[in-house]
Write a structure and sequence with these properties.
The protein has 75 residues and is mainly β. It contains no helices and 5 strands. A hairpin with a 5-residue loop joins strand 3 and strand 4. It binds zinc ion.
Length: 75
């Protein structure tokens, strides 16, 4: 039995996310990259002030210098 291949991704330094409780952008504590249902990756962490779980979607064009202008449309 082997663990499923996890697309581990380095957590961006000084990552920030919006805390809905503080209603402010805060640096993410214990940040980790997770994959959501859509197949996209998001940064998940905790608010250093109130401890609320924060999530921030990561842009897929972070590594590849792909040109902008999406063709796919999801409705
Ligand atoms: Zn907070």
């Amino acid at each position: 039995m082997a663990l499923p291949e996890t697309p581990s991704r380095p957590v961006p330094a000084n990552a920030e996310a919006y805390c809905v409780k503080c209603k402010a952008t805060r640096p993410v504590n214990e940040g980790q990259v997770v994959t959501v249902k859509n197949g996209k990756q998001a940064l998940k962490g905790k608010c250093p002030v109130c401890g609320t779980t924060m999530m921030k979607f990561l842009s897929s064009k972070q590594t590849a210098p792909a040109a902008e202008g999406g063709t796919g449309s999801a409705g």
